[in-house]
UniProtKB/TrEMBL annotation:
Coiled coil: none annotated. InterPro entries: NAD_biosynth-regulator, NadR/Ttd14_AAA_dom, P-loop_NTPase. PANTHER family: NADR_TTD14 AAA DOMAIN-CONTAINING PROTEIN, TRIFUNCTIONAL NAD BIOSYNTHESIS/REGULATOR PROTEIN NADR. Residues 7-170 form the NadR/Ttd14 AAA domain. GO terms for molecular function: nucleotidyltransferase activity. Gene3D superfamilies: P-loop containing nucleotide triphosphate hydrolases. It comes from Thermoflexibacter ruber. It holds the Pfam family AAA_28. This is Nicotinamide-nucleotide adenylyltransferase, NadR type. Keywords: Nucleotidyltransferase, Transferase.
């Protein structure tokens, strides 16, 4: 792992624009972004099991392979980044959802969350329109989930900045937050 690389997690409940913002920030700052492993894992798993329903099914047995996959994906990209890397979620998300849906988590997961270090979290507000997809299932619980995500950041004593706004405003708010936090010049 390159210790010089600043690590920023795009964080928050489902359908808050994390993937879009991670991609946009990577383009803006001319760097890499790390996709969410869980999305690819569950899509492939359900496809292989012959499920083509409107809703993709996840079980407690999926939590560990999803978390291990997230770690592997992050580690594979960190060495390639220079200066800055953006993550479309991280292990803390796996821990939050495991506890929320199953009221339990793999014993090693909390320690792994603590051991993985990130410089900044951008906590996305639920002020964007809900977009349904097969992995999303709780449009009515967005505020509740946002509170869980925020409380997890506070509990784990993480640096975070809340990001609001729609479209270009949301991107510019995130760019400004990253620039200000890391004291980056306009050309970076």
């Amino acid at each position: 792992m390159n210790e010089i690389v600043k690590k920023v997690v795009i964080f928050g409940p489902e359908s808050t624009g994390k993937t879009t913002l991670a991609k946009q920030l990577a383009i803006y700052f001319h760097t890499l972004w790390c996709p969410e492993f869980t999305r690819a894992y569950l899509t492939m798993k359900n496809h292989l099991e012959g499920r083509y329903a409107k809703h993709i099914v996840s079980t407690y047995a999926d939590i560990e392979p999803m978390a291990i996959g997230q770690i592997a994906l992050e580690d594979s990209l960190e060495g390639q980044a220079q200066n800055l890397i953006f993550y479309d979620t991280n292990l803390l998300t796996n821990l939050i959802y495991s506890n929320y849906y199953f009221q339990k988590h793999p014993a090693w997961l909390p320690r792994a969350v603590v051991n993985r270090k990130y410089d900044l979290y951008l906590l996305l507000d639920v002020d964007v329109v809900w977009e349904a997809d097969p992995l999303r299932d709780r449009p009515y619980a967005r505020s509740e989930m946002h509170a869980l995500f925020k409380n997890a950041l506070i509990h784990h004593q993480q640096n975070f900045i809340e990001i609001r706004g729609l479209g270009e405003d949301r991107l510019q708010n995130a760019v400004r937050a990253v620039r200000d936090f890391f004291k980056l010049k306009e050309t970076q």
